[in-house]
Specification:
Layout: H1 2-9, E1 11-12, E2 18-27, E3 42-47, H2 56-61, E4 67-72, H3 78-86, E5 91-98, E6 101-102, E7 109-110, H4 113-118, H5 158-163, E8 172-178, E9 216-218, H6 235-244, E10 267-275, E11 278-279, H7 282-294, E12 299-302, E13 304-305, H8 313-319, H9 321-332, E14 343-347, E15 366-371, E16 389-392, E17 407-410, E18 428-431, H10 434-455, H11 461-469, E19 472-473, H12 476-480, E20 484-485, E21 494-495, E22 507-508, H13 510-518, E23 522-526, E24 531-534, H14 536-539, E25 547-552, H15 555-561, E26 571-574, E27 577-580, E28 586-596, E29 611-622
Parallel strand pairs: 1-5, 8-10, 8-12, 9-10, 12-14, 14-15, 15-16, 23-29
Antiparallel strand pairs: 2-4, 2-5, 3-4, 6-13, 7-18, 10-11, 17-18, 19-22, 20-21, 24-27, 25-28, 26-27, 28-29
Length: 634
């Protein structure tokens, strides 16, 4: 009985949705694979992963070299043979090649001729004509988006673009999803290009084990990237646009890390694991993630997962060991000059469950829940344990037009939308889901890595992940002030109580992450209110008795925050507190000069005095009372 339990503990099948002609086998040692070929039931034995010499040590560290695909002959009983394999002492694990799903089962898509053709160019900032309807980047409370639209329900990226950083082409984000339309007019300049590969010659020019992988690879069909087969939804292309659609190019939309129009956007690598109605197997997912690691990606954006209810990380890991091995391998690689590793971002899931779905629910992986233009949880989002942070995901039922409150991004023009809003073939579309929230965080992470590189800063990977999770605006105060959420169209009220303290650390804020990277503290101010802000946390508890020499407020900050003068000053300090009156949401910096060690500065012929203290503080003005409890810091 003990031996039977031991054998079954090494066999993993999560559902009936799996490849019944192949098994995944993990051995104690890679050199022990020869015995597998001796079985009459096996037609072929191959390594799961292609070898990368540069990462050979990591392959062994995470056991990727010990995984093999065992293909079975026709007529073989896969269950019985899996049990037979598990009985071998050299075998550590036998895993069925199960299939994952896109986190888009609850997502909708529509295109609209008027929106795509009449959006106007912003006078302030980039010239992309649809940027002013991308509320997810700069939400000014436009009631045409939603009757309950909330100022500041966005990722707060506009002032980052304008004053700090818009991207860096050395930072690559792999979209592990449907194929990305690499020749899309708003994506092609920001697509990753494998310079060692010659397109279309059917040769593995760079010797990485993949033929013609110029912009990534199709792991479903083992070949060229596709995006418009029957069953495709444009999911991968839409996610890619949110991450890094080309900014300031006079067309279409913007991406979070899409650059400034000077060839400085982050790059998109397409790691295709869904093609038409097929894909998402454990083999395809694991290989796609390893490919991203081996070919230079610093971030993977993964809007897929499993609906299985796992009771613990150990339970998940024992059943998807190959996948978690690949993810940890990816995060241990270092493909940038900033971190000693890479970062994986996953969608939390669209089932309205009070827990995140795996893989994102795993304790050391960032999982993203979704909020709408009202800064409240969406009806579909997963929430609760395993959900680490929130981002805009869009929500159709705010308006009868059924799309403006969703997320606008790039779309393959070959794919026609369905429903009453379908108007023909376009390069852009609206979608909703935690699938759309995930690439917002991926883009902000890429932007953060770009800015850190610009500043010459380096961080420990786990430290940087903590910085991401603490770079947030409060969402709980918004949830707590609303007993229920009323929709304008086709949906019952949504009770808010279950979501309180369950949407991760808060709503991702790009400006706050940049301030973390700088080491500049953030204060949160309420828009439209004259207020005193406590600065003792940054100048010490004795700040109330310090002598202040003045506050410098750059014109850029006055403009960004819409600062209103009080007593002839844009900001001043009294009794150790900063007085300020912002009139619009935004972000900016102020500079405070004070004296440490006396009532005046020392030096020269002056009596003994103190030294000058120069303190840089960032102000984030939002339309919600109070800060996020941590002031933006863990």
């Amino acid at each position: 009985m003990g031996r039977e339990r031991q054998i079954r503990s090494k066999m993993v099948r999560l559902s009936e949705d799996y490849d019944d002609r192949a098994l995944l086998v993990k051995l104690e040692k890679a050199s022990q694979s020869s015995f597998l070929s001796e079985s009459e039931e096996i037609s072929e034995v191959t390594p799961v992963f292609r070898h990368c010499e540069a990462n050979a040590d990591l392959e062994k560290r995470f056991g990727l070299d010990r995984w093999f695909i065992v293909k079975l002959n026709d007529g073989c009983n896969i269950d019985a043979f899996a049990e037979e394999l598990a009985a071998y002492r050299h075998v550590s694990l036998v895993e069925f090649n199960s299939v994952s799903e896109k986190c888009s089962s609850d997502a909708a898509c529509s295109m609209d001729r008027d929106i795509c053709s009449t959006a106007t160019v912003l006078n302030d900032g980039f010239n992309d004509p649809m940027l002013n309807i991308q509320w997810n980047y700069d939400n000014q409370g436009n009631k045409s988006v939603s009757p309950t639209c909330q100022k500041g329900a966005d990722v707060n990226v506009k002032n980052v673009w304008k004053y700090l950083c818009a991207g860096d082409p050395s930072i690559v984000v792999a979209v592990v999803d449907e194929g990305v339309k690499y020749n899309h007019p708003d994506l092609k300049e920001n697509m990753w290009v494998n310079k060692g590969e010659i397109a279309g010659n059917q040769i593995d020019d760079d010797g990485n084990g993949y033929v013609d992988d110029v912009n990534g690879y199709n792991f479903v069909d083992d070949g060229n990237i596709s995006w418009a087969l029957p069953g495709d939804s444009g999911h991968g292309t839409h996610c890619a646009g949110t991450i890094a659609a080309v900014n300031n190019n006079g067309i279409g939309v913007c991406g979070v890390a899409g650059g400034s129009g000077k060839g400085d956007g982050c790059k998109i690598m397409s790691c295709q694991i869904f093609s038409g109605d097929y894909g998402g197997s454990a083999i395809q997912v694991a290989n796609a993630i390893k490919y991203a690691a081996d070919n230079g990606a610093s971030v993977i954006s993964c809007s897929f997962g499993y609906t299985n209810s796992f009771s613990s990380d150990n339970y998940y890991q024992s059943r998807y060991s190959i996948e978690i091995d690949a993810i940890h391998y990816f995060e241990a690689c270092s493909n940038n000059d900033v971190l000693n590793g890479n970062v994986a971002i996953f969608a939390a899931g669209n089932n309205g469950h009070n827990y995140a779905h795996y893989p994102g629910a795993f304790h050391d992986i960032i999982s993203v829940s979704a909020f709408g233009p009202d800064l409240l949880p969406t009806y579909y989002t997963n929430y609760g344990p395993g959900c680490n942070i929130s981002a805009p995901g869009g929500e159709a039922y705010h308006t009868s037009s059924n799309f403006k409150s969703m997320i606008l991004s790039t779309m393959p023009s070959e794919i026609r939308s369905t429903g009453e809003s379908a108007m023909g073939n376009y390069d852009y579309a609206y979608m909703q889901g935690t699938s759309m929230a995930c690439p917002h965080v991926s883009g902000v992470v890429a932007l953060g890595l770009s800015y850190a590189k610009k500043l010459g800063k380096t961080f420990d990977r786990d430290q940087f992940k903590q910085m991401i999770l603490s770079s947030v605006n409060d969402i709980d105060q918004r949830i707590g002030s609303t007993s229920s959420k009323t929709y304008a169209y086709h949906q019952n009220d949504l009770q808010m109580g279950p979501y309180y303290h369950q949407m991760g650390t808060g709503a991702i804020d790009a400006w706050r992450l940049m301030m973390h990277i700088e080491g500049t503290p953030c204060l949160t101010a309420q828009v439209g209110t004259k207020q005193w802000l406590d600065i003792s946390e940054y100048l010490g508890s004795a700040s109330v008795s310090l002598t202040f020499l003045g506050v410098e407020v750059p014109e850029a900050t006055v403009e960004a925050l819409g600062l209103q003068p009080v007593e002839g000053e844009m900001a001043y300090i009294r009794y150790g507190r900063l007085y300020i009156h912002p009139s619009k949401i935004g972000s900016g910096k102020i500079y405070i000069k004070s004296v440490g060690g006396g009532s005046h500065l020392g030096g020269g012929d002056n009596p003994p005095g103190g030294m000058e203290i120069d303190t840089e503080i960032s102000i984030v003005a939002r339309d919600i009372d109070g800060a996020n409890g941590t002031g933006g810091w863990l």
